[in-house]
Amino acid sequence: MRDDLDFSYESRPVRVVFRAGAALSATPGEADRLGLRRVLVVCGTRGAHTARAVADALGPRCVGVHDRARMHVPAEVADAAVRAARAAGADGCVAVGGGSSIGLGKAVALRTGLPLIAVPSTYSGSEMTPVWGLTEHGGKRTGRDARVQPRSVVYDPELTLSLPVPLSVTSGVNALAHAVEALYAPDTSPLVQLMAEDGVRALARALPEVAGEPTSLGARGRALYGAWLCGSCLGATTMGLHHKLCHVLGGTFDLPHAETHTVVLPYALAHNAPAARDAADAVARALGAADAPTALWELAGRLGAPRSLAELGLREADLAVAAAQTAGQAYANPRPVTADGVLALLRAAHEGLPPTAVAR
Ligand code: NAD
Fold first, then answer.
1. pLDDT in tens, 75-113
2. Which residues contact 306 (CB under 8 A, 6 or more apart)?
3. Residue with the nearest Cα to atom 6 of ligand 1?
4. Could you tell me if the CB of 172 is within 6 A of ligand 1?
5. Does ligand 1 have an atom closer than 6 angstroms to the CB of 150?
6. Lesser CB count within 10 Å: N end or C end of the chain?
7. Distance 85 CA to ligand 1 centre (A)
8. Cα-to-centroid distance, 37 and ligand 1 (Å)
9. How far is the CA of 171 from the centre of ligand 1 (A)?
10. Which of 98-102, 133-137, 210-214 has the lowest mean pLDDT?
11. Which class would CATH give 165-359?
12. Does ligand 1 lie within 6 Å of residue 131's CB atom?
């Protein structure tokens, strides 16, 4: 514990229920606690089967299932969901699925003020944040608004049993990125640091177990527990270079969300580590390793995840544009962000070099 404590921490009124089978056994009770009698269930097409099971469990409290969620919440998809909620006379929304489904639920909450219950099926962590995103005219807008923070989150490891191993791995590293950036965020705090370190520890242990035995409920539970902690860290702090860079790579170059986080994280941490020693040490401690960026890179490699931006389809000619865009925005980061610094980081990530190649 440091002697020079100086922090603010705001907790939000979120109820979390965590238990195998909770999607069906706990969601109806969560709706009752919030006084909801006419909820609309939102989900993606691939997750519609699970969402319908949740809708059946909700029984007469459910007024419909809207299965149109898409990645990055296109504005017309949000409009259609808002219309469906209004047409059904919904008094609340239940989002079942990954970050895309929860993102759609947040869009409905933002526009209508309806309370949201989240039943996550990936490790994205969106359910623990007041951050919303909408894609329009080829660009993604994001913002923070207390109305979109789910009022209740139902974690059910059984829902994640069907998550394919490659997606489990990249989604898990996406969660790790939330914890890593929370450790050096300007608004970090002792509680966030505890959650971040334990989140990294839990996921780093669980992901190899999930990859080895995807149907292990124990491993799935440990991974989801880590995702909860990492998502809580994201909700409580301001994002830095890593998230901004992934945002540019996803928004401008259409790279896939979780895979991009997985490739970039070791390089972003290697870049920031000289200016964020305590954070890098905490990550290393949680990983049981000497060098945190190298350990993250090796973990992704061992689990068969993509390790270069070239593999994800980014062209070398795009690197300078991405670097300029990322350096051109204003945000807090422990190390000053310059176009040259980001370009060096991106070059190493593009080739998939060991993260020690990033200038310290
Ligand atoms: P996703 O929700 O798009 O899911 C990825 C794919 O996995 C989809 O095809 C989905 O149908 C499938 N899937 C989900 N759960 C499954 C399961 N249990 N079994 C089988 N298939 C399953 O992806 P994601 O990585 O969860 O979320 C990414 C989105 O969330 C991005 O738009 C990102 O910007 C957003 N996000 C937002 C926040 C926030 O705080 N606002 C945080 C993290 C991510």
1. 999 999 999 999 999 999 999 999 999 999 999 999 999
2. 170, 259, 262, 263, 300, 312
3. 98
4. no
5. no
6. N
7. 22
8. 27
9. 8
10. 133-137
11. mainly alpha
12. yes
Amino acid identity of residue 303, one-letter, is L
Q: Is the CB of 122 under 6 A from ligand 1?
A: yes
Please give the average per-residue pLDDT across 114-129, as a whole number: 98
Element (DSSP H or E) covering residue 16: strand 15-18
Q: Is the pTM of this model over 0.90?
A: yes
CB contact at 8 A, 72 and 132:
no
Average pLDDT over residues 338-347: 97
Beta carbon of 159 within 6 Å of any ligand 1 atom: yes
Regarding the beta carbon of 47 and ligand 1, being less than 6 Å apart is answered: yes
- Could you tell me the fold of the domain covering 15-160? Rossmann fold (3.40.50)
Mean pLDDT across the chain: 96
Which amino acid is residue 288, in one-letter code? G
Every domain of the chain and the residues it spans: 15-160, 165-359
Closest CA to 194 of 205, 182, 206: 182
Rounded to the nearest whole angstrom, what is the distance from the C-alpha of residue 5 to the centroid of ligand 1? 36
Matching residue, tokens 């006419």: 38
